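Hi everyone,

Forwarding the result from last night's run.
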Amino acid sequence: MNHSFYSQVYNIVGRIPEGMVASYGQIACMLDSPRNARVVGWAMRQCPADLPWHRVVRSDGSLASKDFYEFQRVMLESEGVEFLPGGTIRMETYQWIPDFHV
């Protein structure tokens, strides 16, 4: 994947509203690349510091980052995102459904 794909990922992530989340796969599908959820993850590892990276989660509502798990959870909770007892987010409640096409 090229830097243009990463830029498109960052454009989408920058639009995720506070208190909502999107999955890696969802972002890949929005870019017409449904098999590239992993590449979205690679892009997120290198994302700009001002991007709301914490709003990107796995499709099952779990947090992907082992290194930043607690920090990401605290950031999401501070935005009103609630976690289920198993540590996942109820995607049907908090998944962002954009009102635009990429």
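The chain has one domain: 3-94.

Cheers,
N.
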